[in-house]
Amino acid sequence: MINKIIHKQLNVIRQTNMPDYDREVAGFSWDAARALLGWFPDGKLNIAYEAIDRHLQNGNGGNVALRWIAKDGSRKDFTYRDLSEMSNRFANLLRSLGIKKGDRIYSLLGRVPELYTAALGTLKAGCVFCPMFSAFGPEPIKSRMEIGGANVLITTRKLYKRNVEAFRNDLPELKEILIIDGDGSDGGLRNLTALMAAAEEDFRIEAMAPEDTALLHFTSGTTGKPKGAVHVHEAVVAHHITGRIALDLRPDDIYWCTADPGWITGTSYGIIAPFTNGVTMIVDEAEFDVNRWYQILAEERVTVWYTAPTAIRMLMKAGSDLVKSRDLSHLRFMASVGEPLNPEAVIWSADTFGMPFHDNWWQTETGGIMIANYASVDVKPGSMGKPLPGIRAAIVEKSDNGVREITKPLGIGELALQAGWPSMMRGYLHEDERYRKCFSNGWYLSGDLAMRDSDGYFWFVGRSDDVIKSAGHLIGPFEVESALMEHAAVAEVAVIGIPDETAGEIVKAFVALKPGYVPGEDLRLDLIGHARKRLGPAVAPKDIAFRKNLPKTRSGKIMRRLLKARELGLPEGDISTLESDEQ
Length: 583
Ligand code: ATP
Ligand code: MG
Prior knowledge:
The chain is of the alpha/beta class. It contains 19 helices and 27 strands. The strands form six sheets. Strands 2-1-11-10-12-13-14-15-16 form a nine-stranded mixed sheet. Strands 17, 18, 19, 20, 21 and 22 form a six-stranded antiparallel sheet that branches. Strand 21 (443-452) and strand 22 (458-463) form a beta hairpin. It is globular, with a radius of gyration of 23 Å. It binds adenosine-5'-triphosphate (ATP) and magnesium ion (MG). Magnesium ion binds next to loops.
């Protein structure tokens, strides 16, 4: 644990949406958060109304909602009014095809405007939206469509031909396939563009009950087969308030969330929260590229930026000079989610950008940010921050009758949240037993191990599957990885436990090097020596292997279980979300 604290300046604190965290915690109520939104009569609501049409009612329909940057660099702006009309057309189009409230609409699209229109139009029609990564192959697509009972798929001709056509007839519930780029003349495919043009521009948004299903999201598949989490319309209450106080969003912000809507960050914080907060949101169609990213930050004058540790580590690898040569003076707040953010990365960002990345923690299951570093609160590099106002988080351990809280500072246990916040999942699709097992004594059990310090900051230790038990010590991979990240040669690192007769398990690290460093025995010993100095011999890795890349999910999470399976010659398990994985 690093003792350095990044203090916030008073003039910064005063200007944030939540200048006083403790006061907000004391005064917070979910009912007050609900009251920030525009409800329909009889306690009904609709996420798409809150995100888009509410702003038209308030006279802000002319503000730019979405600035889309195509792969070729060209830009297209869509106002809130544009998105309202386009999503109305989409909702009408669904109706004209006989699609009813509760039907499931899937997308298999890159980050193109049609994806956003479809998501909003689906919600307006009271249907359930399930976005899939466009890079998925046929198997993961088929299983997701089967599990959720897809009725409609929106995709491109190429993606359809490559990934869907072969199994189309195996899905009896699949009624319609809408193609955004075709003439629709063959195979019963429909032409979305033509249907949109023909559809009515006005639509009466469905008034949904708070508990009506809105979204299906699959987990990242980091620890095993992805689970399908069910989310409801009332989740928007949490999206809105977290956008406001955890990401500090305001209507005049230019906000960029780099996540794809194929995983939940790209929907909760790449569609819903930014729009409910009335910002201008940047969407980049292209994949990660260091220069392109810095160019977007500078040219679009991005003020709030939400990204992930893998990307941050790649930016670090590319060096600080690239940042210093650009005008990024508009940036006000930077946040990170998805994996533990090494303290090294936080300190690097504070030095390089003049402000730190603010790590926050949540899961597909929690639907929204649960623990965060806030704009007004001092940052302890390596900590996930403090619980969202309205969320009670604790460290728990198993006891005779369920679980009990560990109150001792820095005691390690499972990270648990008191159940009952609006964006909590309402079930795993077809896995009731698994869902039930997530709860005990009123706590939702996250499956992650963590600790809380005496100031109330939470520290990630590791996923319970990844924690290493060695010679009586409980070793969190994150601690070991963070120590190795401090070494100048290390770009990325993953740590696993290898079974060992005497110690139970020993620690092994897999390291990818920064440009200019070559793997070799000297470097291996140097890295082990560095880790021993930082962590002591009991915790430091006994072995280090060099890799060009580490296996990751498409959402950028290191798959330690795969490193372990390969190391031990065991079956690789579900690798449907694995990104190409050159070794
Ligand atoms: P699966 O459940 O299928 O194995 P997954 O857990 O990676 O996949 P997600 O719901 O996308 O699927 O990710 C949530 C998990 O990501 C958390 O449980 C945690 O392990 C990790 N995570 C997210 N944010 C952070 C963070 N700020 N620090 C540490 N870990 C994080
Ligand atoms: Mg998970």
